[in-house]
């Protein structure tokens, strides 16, 4: 099995279909977006080709492939409003391993290492991220990769009948 990454430049129909499948996967929903309440968690949406192209105007998106199967995506944007600690030149990252075949196999570790290298190549020195406090697997991964907790936002998302916080983390990249 070969894991490789490819920049998303022009979203093809199969990529849009995969993004929409992941955006509506009940196992992934609570991990990738914050929700105010149970009703929000139950809403489903689809992203259009134009919306995905619009995302590419302010985000760099990379697709994760296992052999020839698209299994996930990762992205970053520079200096977005959601940064906990406003420091110019900070990349905000996100990662989704959308296909069950890609989860729990260490691909997230390799994907973030790849993403960090792309961010370094752009000349950025810091990465920020948010992870919901119930996502213990992701928290463990980020800590293993050297991310440090810098903040906590209470009552950030709804899941399993209650509100959960968002842990904000950062990592400074070596030159």
From TrEMBL:
Gene3D superfamilies: 3.40.630.30. Coiled coil: none annotated. PANTHER family: GNAT-FAMILY ACETYLTRANSFERASE, SPERMIDINE N(1)-ACETYLTRANSFERASE. Transmembrane segments: none annotated. CDD domains: NAT_SF (cd04301). Pfam families: Acetyltransf_1. Residues 14-174 form the N-acetyltransferase domain. This is GNAT family N-acetyltransferase. The lineage of its organism: Bacteria, Bacillati, Bacillota, Bacilli, Bacillales. SUPFAM superfamilies: Acyl-CoA N-acyltransferases (Nat). It comes from the Bacteria.
């Amino acid at each position: 099995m070969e894991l490789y990454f490819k920049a998303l430049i022009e979203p093809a129909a199969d990529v849009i279909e995969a993004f929409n499948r992941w955006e509506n996967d009940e196992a992934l929903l609570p991990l990738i977006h914050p929700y105010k309440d149970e009703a929000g968690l139950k809403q489903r949406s689809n992203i259009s080709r134009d919306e995905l192209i619009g995302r590419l105007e302010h985000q760099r998106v990379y697709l994760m492939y296992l052999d020839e199967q698209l299994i996930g995506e990762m992205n970053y944007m520079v200096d977005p409003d959601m940064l906990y600690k406003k420091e110019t030149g900070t990349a905000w990252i996100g990662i989704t391993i959308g296909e069950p075949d890609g989860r729990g196999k260490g691909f997230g570790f390799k994907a973030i290492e790849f993403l960090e290298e792309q961010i370094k190549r752009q000349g950025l020195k810091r990465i920020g991220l948010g992870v919901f406090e119930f996502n213990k697997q992701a928290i463990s991964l980020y800590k293993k990769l050297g991310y440090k907790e810098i903040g906590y936002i209470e009552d950030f998302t709804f899941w399993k009948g209650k509100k959960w916080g968002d842990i904000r983390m950062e990592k400074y990249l070596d030159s």
